[in-house]
Write the structure tokens for this entry.
Amino acid sequence: MIIDLLGYGAFFMSTALIFALITLGLNLQWGLTGLFNVGVAGFVAIGAYASAILTTPDTVDRIGGFGWPIALGWIGAALIAAAAAAFTGYATLRLKADYLAITTFGVAVVVQLVALNAQGLTGGPFGVAFIPRPFAGVQDQPVLFNFANLAVVAGVTLAVYLALERLSRSPWGRVLRALREDERAAIALGKSAQSYRIQAFAVGGGVMGLAGAVQAHFIGFIAPDNYLPTLTFQVWAMLMVGGSGSNRGAVLGAIVVWAIWVGSGTLTAAVVPGDFQARAASLQIVAIGVMLCLILLWRPQGFFGPRRKSS
Amino acid sequence: MSVLQVNTLVAGYEPGLPIVKGASIYADEGEIVVILGPNGAGKSSLIKAIAGLVPISSGQVLLDGRDITAVPAHLKIRQGLAFVPQTENIFPLMTVAENLAVSGGVLPRAEVAGRMDEMFAMFPDLARQRSLTAGSLSGGQRQMLAVARALLVRPRVLMLDEPSAGLSPKLVAQVFAGLAEIRAQGMTIVLVEQNARAALALGDRAYVLVEGREAHEGPAKTLWDNPLIAELYLGHRKEAS
Amino acid sequence: MSLQFLLDGLIAGSMIGLGAIGVTLTYSILRFSNFAHGDFMAWGAYAALAVVGVLGGSAPMKPLSFGWPLLVAMIVAMGLTALLALALDWALFARLRARGQSIIVVMASFGASMALRSLLEFMFTSRPTYFSRAIQMATPVGLGIKITADQVALLVVTLALVTGMHLMMSCSQRGREMRAYAQNPALAQVVGIDVAKVVRATWVIGAALACASGVMVGVLVQIRPLMGLSLLLPIFAAAILGGIGSVPGAVLGGLIIGLSEAAAVQFVGAEWRSAVAFVILMGVLLVRPMGLFGVAER
């Protein structure tokens, strides 16, 4: 019984840490560089599908069979997502901030559309299955399997966290922070300001793609429905709760908000009668939406960031 | 009682960093008061603070004895205080007629058309251009439009921030002649200017603002003749006149 | 080849254009992109549905599928949606606007949109619903095009609304004030324009038009909580294509996108419809970001 609980705990943490990874990517884009990405789900999806396509075997009506090893699939996913982010940034960053928001929203819509309709590429509404899992050998021992996966996810998240912390403290990171806080610095840097922002946006997008790939291989199959606006929304709530601008805040915020999400979901499933379940799920989202707005109003610096005055 | 009375005004964009540091000025009915001073002295900020565009920390602004210090910017004109900013003082995408009409919102609706006709009579050039987009007007014509727009609502005091900026000497003379004409009809005018010579020739009284406070005050004519002032604050050695 | 897609495009374009007017006004006057605008459409449609329910059924005015209750309901719903927008502004947007960073307001609109949408799902479930189940007869009008009475009526309503908007913006004092404030907020205050009234007018107009658009979609297609979200990208694209701040631009942009989408459905495939708006948006941003009638950025 305890073992099962621990197994579930490992599963919970793995999912939470994948969210943490996405939130870290978002923190680089928003917290450090001040760019508003409304299409997070799209970049996660790009990474997930890229890795899936690169590593899954051939099927009758979908491309595949490249037979890449998992690790390379993940790297490929990160690079492809980063490229998509770079293009998006290039198209919009010389314009007002709102245009980036609208365009990323569009990216998520189109990615969803392609995932749903380009059957030859993405498997359509049925998605991609049989994605190779890192510890496939122990699949039949759930607790061990969950812990093994947790180890991998935690390792990747830790590695990315350390890398991002390094980047954030580097001269590159300092330039980004200056660009975010002082418009005059941006004007002084001129054209290269855009270049810095595109780089930051691309790296953040790459991290999101990596997270999507990790999750795809963790679960074993993906479908377009995994990448809805709700996902973008959850990640934003996580970053705002945690404290935008802080990598530690991003990770802690992700764990806390995921816990709240799962907890409230379990509560409603237990308490609410069957035919009202779907409605109760909607209420969950309303609550998170209201929470996000309240945080913006009353505690924009979040709860888990380092103690500093809100920017 | 002065029409406009400003007492020890402290104002600035940041609460702890005032640009206007306790300035006091006044303008009597029918006067043209000129405010001069070196760059950064706070002349523009003073006049903007009076107009309600720069936050006031302390001090008073009185119009005909009424305290209008805390009145929000868009209501200052209803109190009788009209302001012509230095740059961006017209709406470039609207026609000349629309520029005047949009300022007429503070008047009773029945009066607007009549007042617009009066402005067109006073500024015949504008009448000819009434359907042109304001952005296509030349610098001098824009200035005229901005002044007409301010006069439309029959203000008690007309304040202008460097009306001669960017204009050729001939146009400056035209604009200032126009201001003299308006004063002749009884208007009280407060003028911030960089072009000291022309401004002092036009004005009745003048202040020299230094570091956010008035440092000298006197009749315009004598201020021009004061060599010390000329050298220190007007930035040139005054030639023997 | 049937030219039916031209009519379909015109109808879709009307619905998009009405929504785009609100977005373009909100952006040019309040300086932020309102991600909750699509949800004003959905709330408007549901509000009209509720009012129709209260007014009770009545025989439709042949050959339309709806009777006078729907028209009354639409007007009442426009008022209710305007109240929703004003309440949202008071509670959330105005306070964040006062702090300065406009992208935070966009973020809040994103959060508010999620909450509004899910609240509708909570109240009405995500099942589609309809004003009327009556099947409409489509009359051929030549060139292979067929039109229903509802479509004619709603095109007339759109024309009336757009014309009214244009007259209001060009000739009324409030419209002039709105245009002036969009061009230069500081100068607008100096000339005596009451900013609070301009802001209120912006929300009321935007929300009312969004509601009208939502009711149209409800009459011609269906009502569901996600109806606003699926129109949000075309609406933004239309506003940007037309040139932010331009009401005629928003309408024209809407028509262009509507027609392009309908053409795509006809010639490429219905499943790719939503990609059209994105392609047009990217094209505009890469080639001519200020759009057709756009004014240079301040």
Remarks:
- The radius of gyration of chain C is 19 Å.
